[in-house]
Amino acid sequence: MRLVFLGPPGAGKGTQARALAREWGVAHVATGDMLREALAAGTRLGLEAKRYMERGALVPDDVIIGLMRERLAGPDAARGFIVDGFPRTIAQAEALAGLLKDAGQALDRVIYFEVSERELLRRLTGRRICRRCQTAYHLVSAPPRTPGVCDACGGELYQREDDREATVRNRLEVYARQTAPLLAYYSQRGLLTTVAGEGSIEAIRSAIRAAAGAER
Ligand code: AP5
Question: Which residues contact ligand 1 via a Cβ below 6 A?
Answer without folding.
Answer: 7, 9-15, 31-32, 35, 52-53, 56-59, 64, 85-86, 88, 92, 123, 127, 136-138, 141-142, 162, 171, 201, 204
